[in-house]
Every structure is written in C-alpha cells, then in structure tokens.
C-alpha cells in the first residue's frame, strides 16, 4: 500500500521499497513507496531484504532506471538522480507544494459535532434534517 507525503516525510530515513510494479523512467514519489511499518514482518519471513537500500528521503524525486516489481528495495543501481535526504528546508518546500495542491476542505456547518467513542465515529449535523452518521474506525 502506498504512503502519503506527510508519512513519507516522517519516515524519510527508512528504507525505500516499491509498493507496486513501476516502469523505467518514472519519477519516484511517495505514492510508489511501501509503508515501512510492514518491513519487520517481511524481513523476518525472508520475503524482503533491505540491505543497501536507499532511504525514502533519497528516492522521492529520483528516477527509476529499470522496470521493477512490487517489494523491490530501491538501490543505487536502479535509481538515478538520487536526492539529498530531504533536509529540513527541502522537506518544508515539498510539504508546502503539497499543501498548495491539496483540495479545499469545505467549512463544517454550525451545530456539527464529531466524536470518537469505543472505536466508532459519530457525526451529528444539526443543520438540515438532523443528520447523524456513525461508522467504526
């Protein structure tokens, strides 16, 4: 499963592994990378070896030089234009670009409440026809 930009920035020093098949020549983004939280289980079972893998910070914005399958660790021999490990200035710049590109979130109507209780989200909207929505999280 791919990750989002905020998560990628939090894990910029973790190994970079493709989440799905990627074609030669693509510019690697956070959407091409697997969630590092699953790596320990994959490594323990022998399905993944991240020795020599570049970090997420080095791979975002780099170019893939070879078509690769999912769960391929990104190493220097298959990645061109390896980035600096997204220093704080670069991370802020990337994050600012993402914020600019993010869609506007509509304002919540007056009288709306959202609570989380016992693993269930409860949304109550007083305006309109007193709409109440609950779903598990």
Walk me through this protein's architecture.
This protein has four helices and five strands; from the N terminus they run αααββαβββ. 22% of the residues lie in helices and 16% in strands. The strands form two sheets. The chain has a three-stranded antiparallel sheet with strand order 3-4-5, with no helix packed on it. A two-stranded antiparallel ribbon has the order 1-2. 21% of the residues are buried. The chain is elongated, with a radius of gyration of 20 Å.
Helical content, roughly? 10-25%
Provide the residue-averaged pLDDT: 80
Radius of gyration: 20 Å
Q: CA-to-CA gap between the ends?
A: 18 Å
Please, how many helices? 4
Shape: elongated
Strand content: 15-25%
Structural class: alpha+beta
The tally of strands reads 5
The profile of the biggest β sheet is: 3 strands, antiparallel
Uncertain runs = none
Strand order of the largest sheet: 3-4-5
Series of secondary-structure elements, N-terminal to C-terminal: HHHEEHEEE
In brief, what are we looking at here?
The chain is an alpha+beta fold and 137 residues long. It has helices at residues 5-10, 39-44, 56-59, 88-101, and strands at 63-64, 79-80, 112-117, 120-125, 131-136.
List keywords for this structure.
137 residues; alpha+beta; three-stranded antiparallel beta sheet; two-stranded antiparallel sheet; 5 strands; elongated
Topology, pairings included?
Layout: H1 5-10, H2 39-44, H3 56-59, E1 63-64, E2 79-80, H4 88-101, E3 112-117, E4 120-125, E5 131-136
Antiparallel strand pairs: 1-2, 3-4, 4-5
């Amino acid at each position: 499963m791919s990750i989002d930009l905020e998560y990628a920035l939090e894990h910029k020093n973790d190994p970079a592994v493709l989440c799905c098949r990627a074609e030669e020549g693509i510019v690697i983004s956070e959407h091409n990378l697997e969630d590092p939280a699953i790596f320990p289980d994959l490594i323990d079972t022998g399905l993944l070896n991240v020795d020599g893998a570049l970090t997420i910070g080095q791979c975002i914005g780099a170019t893939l030089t070879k078509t690769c399958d999912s769960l391929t660790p990104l190493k220097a021999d298959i990645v061109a234009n390896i980035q600096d490990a997204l220093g704080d200035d670069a991370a802020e710049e990337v994050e600012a670009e993402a914020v600019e590109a993010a869609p506007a979130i509509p304002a919540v109507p007056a009288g709306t409440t959202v609570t989380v209780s016992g693993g269930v989200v409860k949304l109550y909207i007083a305006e309109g026809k007193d709409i109440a929505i609950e779903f598990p999280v």
